[in-house]
Automatic annotation (TrEMBL):
It comes from Lophotis ruficrista. It is found in: Membrane. Gene3D superfamilies: UbiA prenyltransferase. Its cofactor is Mg(2+). This is COQ2 protein.
């Protein structure tokens, strides 16, 4: 698409073969990290490979590639816990994982609206094309599900007031983000997408202060 035409592979600065070499290097380093963890985490990490491999193909198959991205990208919610504890506390990890998936659906749907005109021409799919003018209603639902899941995860691991304060601040941020979003202006979509770094920062600070 026009927005990504200058990226190295699309622009022809590197060959497909060179990109596979680079990918192989990244995967090799990732494997070295994974093998440093406990056996439970090694198996859990390896289980994500099916998602990692299939995600890039999903735009050709379904209007919900953002959901598959969420399932893939947030695997760390499971792996991070097991790497420290040796197993998963599912009453905490699953709500946290679900919250991450819902969050990905929010920010990546916004991201996808940047390219929707090109996507229609080249025949790839996205939640932006699926939701169309109903996007804000869907984003509101995903945001609510995210906040509820974060609360459940917090309750199940005895989080304290700073954590829930951060979740409330995240809710206010997401509400403003969705309310002011202009899905027909790519520059505004990018601005709203990038503002999700604030969501991550707020949650991180809330977890740290809640534990302290």
């Amino acid at each position: 698409v026009a927005r990504t035409a200058s990226r190295p592979l699309a622009a022809g600065d590197i060959s497909t073969f060179q990109s596979f070499i680079f990918l192989g290097g990244q995967l090799s380093l990732a494997l070295c990290v994974l093998l440093c963890l406990n056996y439970y985490s090694i198996i859990l990490g390896a289980a994500s490979l099916s998602l990692v491999i299939t995600y890039p193909l999903m735009k050709r198959i379904t209007y919900w590639p953002q959901l598959v991205l969420g399932l893939t990208f947030n695997w760390g919610a499971l792996l991070g816990w097991s790497a420290v504890k040796g197993s998963c506390e599912w009453s905490v990890c699953l709500p946290l994982y679900l919250a991450g998936v819902m969050w990905t659906l929010v920010y990546d749907t916004i991201y996808a609206h940047q390219d929707k005109r090109d996507d229609i021409v080249i025949g790839v799919k996205s939640t932006a094309l699926q939701f169309k003018e109903d996007t804000k209603q869907w984003l509101s639902g995903f945001s609510l599900a995210m906040l509820l899941s974060l609360c459940v995860a917090g309750i199940n691991c005895n989080q304290t007031f700073p954590y829930y304060s951060a979740v409330a601040a995240i809710g206010a941020h997401l509400a403003h983000q969705v309310y002011t979003l202009d899905i027909d202006k790519p520059e505004d979509c990018w601005k709203k997408f990038a503002s999700n770094r604030t969501v991550g920062f707020l949650l991180f600070i809330g977890i740290v202060l809640g534990n302290l």
